[in-house]
Amino acid sequence: MNKYPDKNAIIPNKVNPSVCFLKNIVKDKRIKVGDYTYIDGVTTTKEFMKHVEHFYKFSKDQLIIGKFCQIANGVHFIMNNANHRMNCATTYPFYIMGGSGYWGGNMVPHESELPHKGNIIIGNDVWIGQNVTILPGVHIGDGAIIGLNATVAKDVPPYSVVVGNPARVVKKRFDDELIKLLLKLKWWDKPINEIDKLIPILTNSNLKQVKAKLKKII
């Protein structure tokens, strides 16, 4: 019997069937998810895609999520196609309303006229709390924590804690020296057997000991 969880399983722990490894239910090639990242309350592709909003078939957006992330129930990713043209007297999208053709003629805006903030990119070992909303173009750094009900409209630095609407940084998780050590270690990229050996360090709440041990390892 393998001591490690099966990274290719949808449900890694049958005792908790509401949690799944997200990578194994993602079908859209524009969404990339790292190993061992899990999401709560979603266990099928159809359920998950309801959380990736305004992600139409013609969209060129990407949603990129790293390894070992922890995504709570009710998290939503808002993609760029939710945006409307803002350089006119109205933001109403007449051109998508059908009829016998484009309502108002062929007044389809050029792609450059629509706000486009880029891909959503989430680092590794990121904890995203319940009912968080992440807006287009946001980059969340490794090890960050996003508090429940936050609306994330700006980039989040590594190993920081953000809360609120709009989300704001309230503190760093660790001092700068430990953050640099962890970013250099990149434990999430190591083979599973090496990660297994690191678990006693990674789960140690005595940060002085953690720092001392990491200095010997790196």
How does this model look, in words?
Helix 2 (176-185) packs across helix 4. A hairpin with a 4-residue loop joins strand 14 and strand 15. The protein has four helices and 15 strands. The two termini are 32 Å apart. It has 218 residues and is of the alpha/beta class. A seven-stranded mixed sheet has the order 1-3-6-9-12-14-15, with no helix packed on it. The chain has a four-stranded parallel sheet with strand order 2-5-8-11, with no helix packed on it. A four-stranded parallel sheet has the order 4-7-10-13, with no helix packed on it. Helix content is 17%, strand content 19%. The model has no long low-confidence stretch (mean pLDDT 92). The protein has helices at 45-49, 176-185, 192-202, 207-217; strands spanning 19-21, 31-33, 38-40, 52-53, 63-65, 70-71, 76-78, 120-122, 127-128, 133-134, 139-140, 145-146, 151-152, 160-163, 168-172.
